[in-house]
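As the work plan foresaw, the team has encoded backbone shapes as discrete tokens. One protein thus recorded appears below exactly as we store it.

:::
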Amino acid sequence: MLQLPRLALLPLLLAGCGALPPAATGPARPPSAAPAGSSATLALLETTDLHANVLSYDYYKLQAEPSIGLERTAALIAQARAQFPNNLLLDNGDTIQGTALADYQALVKPLACDQTLAIYKAMNLLKVDGGGIGNHEFNYGLAFLSQVTGNRFDVDSVDASKPRCAGPAFPQVLANVYSVKTGQPLFAPYHIIDKQITATGPDGKPVTSTVKVGIISFAPPTIMAWDKRWLEGRVYTQGVRETAEKFIPEMRARGAELVVAISHGGLDDSPYSPTMENGNYYLSQVPGVDAMLIGHSHQLFPNAASTVPQFNLPGVDKVKGLVNGVPTVMANLWGKHLGVIGLRLRHDGKQWVVDKSATTVEARGIQNADKSYVAPDAAIAELVAEEHAATIAYVQTPVGATDFRMSTYFADVGDVSAIEVVNQAQSGYLAAYVKANLPQYANLPVLSMSSPFKSGSAGVSDYTDVKAGNVALNNAADLYLYPNALYGVKMNGVELKAWLEQSARRFNTIDVNKTELQELVNTAHPSYNFDTLTSADVRYQIDVTQPPGRRIQGLTFKGKPVDAGQEFLIATNNYRASGGGNFPGLDGSKTVVASPDNNRELLIAYVTQQKNLTRAKNGSARSWRFSRVATKGPVVFHSAPNVIELAKAAGIDNVTQLKLDDGAGKGFALYQLDLSK
């Protein structure tokens, strides 16, 4: 695999400084005495997957967005603290990446050592008690993570001689990621919080006591594939279950009365593996776990109405919020919800223990019953005003222009207006590099895969939508959401088809004989895993009446069927090339080019070079169609209301808007797809 030299497309300087992680905890101290039979409620408040959404603002659309933002979660935190005077506010991770603000502080004007990230400033203001580390914390590299968390990582690529930098004011823990150099955890694996509480004695009178709460955190082991370029040879991971089995007895020995697992992952009852992405089903079975704060999946739990497979497993109570009997919460994403576990405690004469039968679990939303939103905490906006203004100024920098609107409202039914330009930037970069440096691959066709990153999963405003006119940096961030690196892989015809088959899992299997409504989109397969070719040389059909794995029909290259042994170079990103999304054959072994350059940088450079984008040149090369088939009942999907003209402009003439409101209460319209056309 070739590692490319750094290309000077944009100045990307990652400064790193840090210090040794703090000790996991001090010597064990006996908790303050409380009479046997005393009782109390301790609320665990969870934020998760904030993704640097400090404010209720969409930097890609340059407008307020009241459905997101920690500044609004703050209202829920205040309400919960008023209801539960005994409380701990804990963050689950995926905190520092995800918005233009985050990229600005990491890549454009890198944070100085004495500065604190905007998201951490807000969390400090809210007096967060502890935090875990998610997979996206690693996206900007170990040097940056070391700096902004105020830790010194003893790993290659981090200058251990630099001083400790400003980090958050709360302890951060991570138990299952280790330094290759030292064999020690990258962060403190756990921390024990001496929490003073007010309890009720057996005589009904108030009692002041201390409960020792141990927090331990886990990141998905799959970070080793997703951020291989930063992590390989520097850190390694261990499985969630065995890590918990190692450290929880140690936490108990050090006096922890309660153990709270802050695990950045979801639930999966597949056979256990130390590398599994969502291992919390098995974590819940480890003795000594009193509560789980989970995340990563961007879902809501508990949720009685949820149809998500991970919440409908044996032993999972989606109404009460229990996983194999362990109180568990997942608070969605972007500050939309606050997880609240009301741990009912009783004192047995020696220590505080959890009464699970009286414990409550809920996820509270920032949207009120009347569809309005809770008011933001004005102090947070004031706190980060300078960073916010600088980010807005940055993202408004024009780099080119477009004569057509680039959107993903109809990407699931074939609109490539927001995808083709990304593919063109990726394939152009890869082709130029191969021509100059890899003569052994010079005769191979170069293709590109990209996906619609924003397709409504986070709400009706969660779509890419770049209006005709100037294209600015914020538009590039809207078109390419993540700070991935460009990778090139070599695949044969069989592997290319398998890649497309995995992408086609985006769709449900349609029964032509059903007369009732059938949903086209399989929401369990996220849009960012719906990879799409946009090449005039490639054609194929997706037959949604066939089961997954048998849907790609008529795959041709330059008018001829793709041969099984025919080889291609395909531009993609480090996440996909290294195994993200579980695409067959994409496990890192097919990578022939590993660029340090960000896909979004390449897009910005491409638009800057092109100057003027047109639909004919940059937004109409649709490689795929649905196979034509007549269905007895309607096939439907959901998108924003009253945007049907965008489908027509993209040449999609088999879509109609059935209902302005699909009835689910989230603002989506219901559309019908006529598969016979």
